[in-house]
Design a protein that fits this description.
Blueprint lengths: L4 E6 L1 H10 L4 H5 L10 E2 L4 H10 L11 E2 L4 E4 L1 H12 L3 H5 L4 H6 L7 H4 L1 H23 L3 E6 L1
Antiparallel strand pairs: 1-2, 1-5, 3-4, 4-5
Helix pairs in contact: 4-8
Length: 153
Amino acid sequence: MGVILSFTKVTSERLNRLLAASPQAQEELWQLERAKGDPDGYLDKAWDGLRYLLEAAGTGVNLCDDGLPLDEEYYAWPAELVGRTAERLRATPFAALAAHYDPAAMDEANIYPRIWVRDGDAGLGYLRFHYATLAAFFADAAKSGAAAVMHFG
């Protein structure tokens, strides 16, 4: 077990209902599921490595500080934020992030899950895979004008 981060696409209307009901929306948040055919927004434990690389590359995407709290583990990402994030990810090829991959510095900075020196190039592959997941999720959500709910826990 460990701390994971994932995104689920929702309509703006549903997000507004969740924001209005918060914190009573806990039950609905637990039951959020990805619609059939939607890209997976599951980043596993790669979230902090991606956060580190996105920040180092100056993308303006902050996986942990963006969004509005719904409760202790869930955050609302309005459609405008989803669209802006999609644009920034589209403008940032993974090679721009990979240029900042420094396993020793990442372990020294306690970038979760502290596997970077141990895994070396495999750690970079792990981040590449999950960056593709992240970019595909946001591209799809933005294309449909959707909002998102982020789960961090």
